[in-house]
Structure formats: structure tokens, C-alpha cells
Amino acid sequence: MVAYEEADVVVIGSGMGGLAAARTIAQFGGKRVLVLEQHYTLGGMTHEFSRAGRYQFGTGLHYISANAGPFLEFMTDGRVQLSPLPDDYDVLHFPGFDFAVPATKERFRARLAERFPAEADAIDGFFRTTRRAMSGLAARNVLSSFPAGVRKMGSPVVERLFPSTYRSLKDQVSRSVRDPRLRAVLTARWGLYGTPPASSAFGYHAAVPLTFFMEGTAHPVGGPKELSRIILEILERYGVLLRPRQRVNEIVVERGKVTGVDVEDTATGRRYRVRTNTVVSAAGVRNTYALIGRSRELADLPGEPSAVMLFLGMDRSPAAFGIRGENHWFMPDLDDHDGFHRPPGEGTLYVSFASLNNPAARFHTVEVLELVDPGVVGQWRGIPEEERPESYHKLKDDLTRRLIARLEERWPGFREAIAFAELATPLSFETYQHSVLGSFYGLAATPQRLRSPRAGCRTPVKGLFVAGQDAWGSGVVGALAGGLMAANAVLRPRQLGTMWRAVRSGGTLPDPATPWHGYLRVAAIETLTPTVRRIRLEALDTGAMPFSFTAGQYLKADLPVAVEPIERSYSICSGPGENGFAEIAVKHEPDGLGSTFLHRELAVGQALRVSGPHGEFTCDPAHDLTAGTLLLIAGGVGITPLMSVLAAAADAGHTGRIVLLASFRTEDEVAFRPEIEALRDRLPGLQVSIFVTARKGRIGVDVLRAYIEDVYRVHLCGPASMMQDLIGHLTELRVPRAAIHTEAFVSGRSKETRREKAHAIALAAAAAGVTEFTVGMAGGAPSFTCHPGQSVLDAANAAGVPLPQSCGEGACGTCRVRVLSGAYETDTRGMFSGDELAAGWRLACQTLPTEDLMIIP
């Protein structure tokens, strides 16, 4: 029996085109959008994969314009961060000479005129024609989003107005350029859109290498996957439902209209139909027409090339060979116009060095691409990967050796630096990209495509639209533009105005109350003690920091200690008045994955993905200049957030009494000694007592008694056992509990341990037939349900029950609740005294019920 679901709009494919269509239709059309992706990973050709536990490889995005442009700015809400390639970003190697392509069209034109002075007039004319051809392509593509009648009347007009757009690249260049070397330079880099000069329409060449890339190029910081990570996060905000591992078997058409899609969940084998009257296919024109049984209508379109791609992991930086991060193109001859007349491995090669252009990369990688006829692997097509014969593997091995030999010829010693090599063939792209015959760039960029009514975002079926590369042009940004064209065809006129205004403005501004997410550069690393390092983080452009913070807050950092990063939290020790950087101090724990990486492997210049600021362990001394005594108590590296509080007090001109009690196990472990001495000169009311516990013992009740007179606020940070004792001592000395603010160290395994506990609780409940627990609220507040394995805080949030909260991970102590009855698993940390624990005080974010609970917030 077939199950049925409903959606306003179904998007097939989660590449940039599909995601762009999904966002705009959901955001500006108010539609319920379902995205179906056949791959196990969302994001299309921004997908990355890892090998050997260390190397990260991109699959389709190698570089983009240095100016992200309004489309990408819109899709990422301005959050995309780019690292520029060298100014000479494409180096072309021809037999007998090289040519480096510089950023900006003006400098490119000047360099061409310098190298080919006899062709100066032809060069000027060529660039004038380029502008015209680019305009023609844009006009043709926008026209393709209009209804059939408008397209039929307008298409001949566009071709008459912009004839160069429709000529072949070879033809257009030959009309004015005589020097064969200049022709070779101008027609090179056709690999950016995949169709050789003899076949490609000049409009595509004008658009991609000669316009889009001419203002300089860049690589996404964090890798291509960073784009899809940001975009997918935004889509969830607009309620877009995203499902990987979903194979669409048919687009259901009745009486010329879309009525649904038939889908198979390849993870479970479940088959179902989604009823809808609007489908946007980002799976390519050929796949789309196959899904409606009309592939024959594309017979007039020439076939597309595929590619072989060699992924190399290096045991040393490519910079050792004089490479700075620029791309290298190897052309076998000056007249490579048909592209595929040579055996695989001997044609035009494109070589990129993503790890040199991504400051967040931990290990060095190289990607080598050659466009090929998909027929080179035709004899093995249809054979499952694990059953392909030795002849297929021999082809891959031979190709790998041939490609590496060409790199070795250019850079002697390169072969010995290779630690890992893997070759992808057209069959690989066919499998993972689900493209027809492994097509790398979608439909061939030919004049036939420009003239075809089938090559665009409109189809003959009402309610069926095409997004992605086939709706605009090649590459990730071309696919994104194709998604916007599909939305342009789906949305109503009044919605379109709002959409295009938002696109031009660059997306939605972030909520100032939301923590910032992005990459910061490591500007300096300093050893404070044998076990503590101070790390300075600054903006990638070395300008002002992208966020401000309050003294006492912390940052979360994603640390690349394995294939998947781990998240760790570190308090900020610099003052909030400094807007050029933020500093954290990290103690090395012998078994700590995060601290070991930060102490042994982190280097100046590397970028870390960071979010922040977080936390409610805050203090603004500027608001309490004469309120009484501010008591700061630290244990070990727990002094870190308190240094920020002291810096803030000094910047505010605080003259009142501040007491710092800091304990360390040994004299060598005393951190920030010079900084504390400097702060004494700026804070006349500062009293400091350093306790070396190996000599003096811990801070006890008698020590505290001397400092609590007139205390209005206490900030306490350190190991859990120390904090538990001190909370008890302060309570005994009648310091109001509301005046005591605490922050605990977050164990590196805290989340993992909580997940393990949650999993065990869920399994035990399932075995007992229990599906939910009830959490009652004393005092008449409504109760709420909690699924086995869910924390009290998560359950309350899901039920819309307000509980105080901040970090969600047990560091800040904000989500205090008192458990009156019921059993649970928890982590008490150092947020409570012994008496408070005995009274049932717990952290809601750490408490996992194992039966019904009764609590008091």
C-alpha cells in the first residue's frame, strides 16, 4: 500500500540550485517546501569527503569570485567568508610559454597588450564583444523564465541583438585575433564550464572565465561544505524540510499538470507519494525529462563531457614547490579546440590547491581535473562498483600514474610528497552526483542549448520547473542563479518584487541577540605556564572583531582533531573594551583531545570556526563603581574569565574594592602574574591574594571571612570540587545565594557522556514499553512530557515551558531547578554546595529523567 504525503512545493536535489529555489519559495511565497536528495549528504557539489582520517576533499567547488556577489551573499545572509587566491590566480602552461592571468579585467587586458603588442586593437575589440556577449547570455537566461509565448517571440530578438553570444568560442576569437598564442590564451580555461572552443557558445566563455572570475578569485574559508552548512541552517529557519537518501522514481503528471512525485527512501525501502502541484527539479534537464518520460524531446541537444578527478593528499605543503595557491592549467597544445581528441590523461589539466587557500585546512590536498568523453568508461557502465573487473582498476591506476607524471614534470619531487591518491571517473560522478553519464557541468554550453526551449527553467508541463546549472550556467554560483530563475517562474509578481529586493540587499541581517558564527584567525600564541597557553583570535581581515562581548563570557570553538570537528568552550580572558581581538587561555589536559590540539598542533595563521559570545557568567563593573566589594575567586585556569572582568573594571575607571582570590596547585602554575601586577596600577581598590595549594592549602572559610564584608557580588570559577566547597562556605558566611555567580569547566567528554547516558535510558525505556515521562511543576504550573533520553531543559523547550537557560551544556549554571521527587541521571558539576545538592538542586540541561519527576524552577 502506497503512503501519501502533501507539500506545497517539492524540490528534487539539494545542490545550490535546489536550495536557492527552496529558500526563496518558502521565504517569499510562504510555501511548505520539501527537498528530496538522493545522496546521503545534502549540499550537492559543495559536498566534501575525507580519506585516510585526515584529508578533506571538495568535489565541485574549487574557487569562486573574490566578490561573493549578491546571489551568494543573499543565500548565506552575508555570512560567507572567503580567502583570496593570489593576485595571479590562474597560470596557463602552453608548449613553449606560460601566461599568468591577473585579477581585474583592466590588468588582464594590459598584460595581454604587453605580451602581444601587435594585437592591441584586437584585444580591445575582444573585450568590448565580451561585454556584449555576457549581456546577451543574461537576457537569454532571464527570458527563459518567462511563459512559452513570451519566450517564443523574444528568443529570435535576443539572438539578433547579441549574435556573438551564440557564436562558437573558436569562431568569435578567430574573427579578430591572428596570433595563435593569443588565441590560445583567450580560449583557455573553457574547462570552467566544460565545452571545448569549437563547440561552446561564446556567451558562456564571456560569462565565466572572462567576467565572473575577472575581479579576482577566492576559496570559502572552511571549505565548500561551509557554504551548504550555512545555507541549510538558514533553510531550517524558514521551515524547509530536507530529506537525504530519497530517490524520486517519477514525477506524476496528469492532463499536462504535475500532481505529485513517487519517492523511495533508500535507507528504509519505504515508498510513498508526495501530492503537490509544483515541482522544482534541480536534478538536471535530462534527469527531469526522464522522470516524466519525455527524454526524446532532448535529442537535438549535444552530449555533455564528464571528468576524471585525481585527489591527492600531501605529506608536505605544495608551497615547497613554489606554489602560492594559484590554479595551474596544463594545455597540451595551442589548438585544443575540440578538447577530447587525446587519450585520457593527456588532455587539458586543471590543478587546484585548496589547502593553500583555506586557512582552516589542517592537512594539504591537491585536486587534478581533466574533462573527458564519458565513453572512456562506457564498457563498465551498469556494473556495480564492487563487481567491476580488473581492467577498470587498471585504467584508474594507469591514469593516476599518467597524471602524477605530468605534475612531476612541472614540479620535480612532487611525486615523493604524495601520501594518498584516489581517482574518480565518470562512473563516480554518475553514482554520487546522479548525473547522466557523469555529466560534470550539466547541459553542454553550446549554441544549440541557447536556442533550445527545453534548456531553461520552464518545461512543457504545468507546475514543473528546472533549477540549477541547466537553468542558468555552470558552477556553484551559476546553479544558484538557476534556482533563483526557477523561483522567478514559480512566485507571483508581487512576491517577486520582494524577493529581488532582498537578493540585491544581500539577505537577512542576523539577529544581534544571536551568537556570531564564523572563522577567526589565530594571531598569536603565548605560553603562560608550562600547562597554559593564551591564544589570540582576530578577524580574518584583521579589522574589527565581528562581535562584542561582556566580561565573563566564553567562545565555542570547533576543533579539527578528527574528520568531524569537536566543539569545546573556552572563557575569554581579554577585556571587552578591545575590539581588535579576543583572547582565550587553555590548559593542557593530558587526555584532552581539544587542549592537546590547541597546545601541540595549532599554529599562528590558522583559522578556527568559532561561535559566541555565550554565557551568563557576566559582570559589568562600569554599572557598579561604588556598590561595595566585588569578590572574584578562581581555581587554576578558572581565573581566565575573571581577568576579563578585571580588565573591564580598569577600562571603566573602577575605584571601589575588588578582591581577587586565586589558587593554583604549584608556583609554576600561577597564570597571568604580570597582567595582575599591571592591573594593580590601574585599579586602586584591587586586593590580590594568590594561594599555592601545595604550600598553603585551599581557600577555606577563615580566609573568606576576611573579605566578605560589604560584598555585593561574587564570581566563582574553578574545578567542581573547589566550587562546591566554596559555595557552602559562602552560604555559611551568610553571603546571599543570589549574589554568588558560578561557572564550571566543561569536560571535554561532557556531551559524549550525556549522549551515552541518554542512549542507555532510551533503550531501557523501550524495553520496558515506556514512551514518555511526565515532568510536573510544583506550584500549579502545567506539566510537560519528556521522551526517554531527553533532558529536562530540552523537553521544557519543546513544550514551550519557560525555564531560565543560557549555555545548555552545564557551564553557566543558569538552568537551576529543584527536583522534589523521581529518579534521573545527572551531572552535578560545581554549581551547587553540598547542602544544595542534598536539597535536590540540579541543572535542567544535565538532568535526564528515568521516571516521572516533580520539579520547582
From TrEMBL:
Keywords: 2Fe-2S, FAD, Flavoprotein, Iron, Iron-sulfur, Metal-binding, NAD, NADP, Signal. Residues 771-857 form the 2Fe-2S ferredoxin-type domain. It holds the Pfam family FAD_binding_6. The keyword Acyltransferase does not apply. The keyword Metal-binding applies. Transmembrane segments: none annotated. Residues 515-620 form the FAD-binding FR-type domain. InterPro entries: 2Fe-2S_ferredoxin-like_sf, 2Fe-2S_ferredoxin-type, 2Fe2S_fd_BS, Amino_oxidase, Beta-grasp_dom_sf, Cbr1-like_FAD-bd_dom, FAD-bd_FR_type, FAD/NAD-bd_sf. SUPFAM superfamilies: 2Fe-2S ferredoxin-like, FAD/NAD(P)-binding domain, Ferredoxin reductase-like, C-terminal NADP-linked domain, Riboflavin synthase domain-like. PANTHER family: AMINE OXIDASE DOMAIN-CONTAINING PROTEIN (PTHR46091:SF3), BLR7054 PROTEIN (PTHR46091). This is FAD-dependent oxidoreductase. The lineage of its organism: Bacteria, Bacillati, Actinomycetota, Actinomycetes, Streptosporangiales.
